[in-house]
Design brief:
This protein has about 375 residues and is an alpha/beta fold. About 35% of the residues lie in helices and about 15% in strands. Bound molecules: pyridoxal-5'-phosphate.
Amino acid sequence: MKPSQIYYAKPSITSLEVQYATDAAANGWGKNCYDYIERFEASFAKYIGSRHAVATSSGTGALQLGLAALGIGAGDEVILADTNWIASAAPIVHLGATPVFVDILPDSWCLDPQKVEAAITPRTKAIIAVHIYGNLCQMDALEALATKYNLHLIEDAAEAIGSHWAGQFAGTRGVFGIFSFHGTKTITTGEGGMLVSQDTDLIQHVRQLNNHGRAQGDPRQFWASEVGYKFKMSNIQAAIGCAQLERIDTLTSRRREIFFTYANLLSGQPLTMNPVPDNGEVYGYWMPTVVFDKATGATQKNVLQRFNENNIDGRAFFSPLSQQAHFSQVCSNPIACDICTRAINLPSYHEITDEDQDRVAATLLKVLNDA
Ligand SMILES: Cc1ncc(COP(=O)(O)O)c(C=O)c1O
């Protein structure tokens, strides 16, 4: 008989989330229809340390709104790391701009600032710093580049809630930052996202764009000042978000605990995991990740297959976007193209047990020894 299934992600939902969602469903209509949205935005802004926060229907929608509000469009180039989920690049393409994929650092799998500088052209308008798996980008170096070349620096902190530089949270250093509350994320609203910024004018434009271009305070009904979008979060989703945010310290500290349990179980083995910085930075460890040493001969494919045979969900490390259908399909970023062939994310949901983590680690070590 096969052992029980270990999922790679699962939200942590308590009676608090159920209570708030039930209240929103029962009472959050008419004059109360924005109550949880306003409360979620205000409490998120306070938690993260940002002047403003706008709740959205997804992290992707938040990124598209922010890029559009900055005026990114046809003829512009936006630099981001090749190791990424398509969600970070799709809004650039939809706006008619060109994503420029650069290679990653071998330890954090985030943007390599030197490669960013080499990729800057007169058409470059922005850099998107994606804090992949909760690992932090080298923001000091990226900020210096943004200043030197007069570029917008944007943070995609979709995976990085709880990551911080000595108390300054990821998402608060760029011209704007975005978060995702997809069901796999550290806090979830089912689907959902948030855009944060210190810039009041930018936020006003984001809100206008997210309301089909209707200007705030315009007395005319059904009158659009520009063609916008509708990427809004519902009050019921926001109610769940409010409950999750009240539990944020528990949820983020559990992520770190799960990561360090794996790090202990796998220490001394022929693999590397997400870095553990010692310079005041704290990572959120959304996804514990392992890269197998080349000498083991283990590949992403054979490890995922063995996990599957043992009823363990593994998750593929992101394939370079440059290789995918819409783009060049040729790999010109050697680190991104190499690491993805021999790396996976390990199961890491809030309620995972020590026994399950033992089983995951033992299965992984068996494959590495057999490979
Ligand atoms: C790095 C990154 N950016 C953006 C997104 C988009 O978030 P969402 O799925 O909420 O649209 C995700 C989530 O999948 C992500 O991982």
